[in-house]
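Q: For a teaching handout, I want to show students what a protein-ligand complex looks like in token form. Below are the inputs, and the small molecule is S-adenosylmethionine. Please produce the holo structure.
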Amino acid sequence: MAKLRTGRQKYYDFFSHFYDLFINLHSSNDRDETRTFLVDSALLENKRRAKVLDICCGTGSVALSFATHFSDCLVIGYDFSLGMLKKAKEKDSFGNVAFIKGDAADLSFADGCFDIVCCSHALYELKGPARKQALLEMKRVVKPAGRVLIMEHEVPRKRFIKLLFYLRMLMMGPKDAREFIKKGGAAFQDIFEDVALSHTRSGKSKLFICRKSFDD
Ligand SMILES: C[S@@+](CC[C@H](N)C(=O)[O-])C[C@H]1O[C@@H](n2cnc3c(N)ncnc32)[C@H](O)[C@@H]1O
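A: Here is the structure, written as tokens, with S-adenosylmethionine included.
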């Protein structure tokens, strides 16, 4: 397991050099819309000094978007790839963001310390048990009544893009990742009582809004 993880970290370290370019080519038109959609869904307008954790933050697009929209909030981007984190730090000119290395399935934070925990386009890449563990960890570190926002891909409609999408799924571990994407909210409903689903305008991504109850 540790060996597999190190291999994947190396893969992401390498990918970090092209990641932003790849995203720009793949979804330049909807990139900002998708991030803004996630940030808006956090409903932080009237909340002072909110604490936000972005799991699997990659090159920091979502974490930096939170930092831009809410200058008094504290944002932490968390990822196990030093390569990705280095790229994220290079883009940071804000002062209210920190990028920390760590595994999504083992968060190095106390219980209930974040108003928002989010994870964008990454959970499908975690293998079964690690994914469930990561979800349990997100629930643990979010405050009671806080929100866990999980953005995932929709299966693309255009044939060629769909082919590329499934090729990528094959690289990530075929059956598991594909089933997760297709199953929709089931994985979240096992862990959170309250799960709402919404879709971005472009129809390319969906957002699961999971709420931790006061009693959890
Ligand atoms: C497809 S990228 C998504 C990046 C970013 N959230 C975005 O929306 O652009 C997936 C990210 O998840 C990270 N990742 C994958 N497995 C992880 C794990 N077990 N713990 C922490 N980070 C992980 C990778 O290093 C990579 O940066």
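A: Two things your students might notice: Residues 12, 56-58, 61-62, 79-81, 84, 103-105, 120-122, 125-126, 130 surround S-adenosylmethionine (CB under 6 Å). DSSP finds nine helices and seven strands in the chain.
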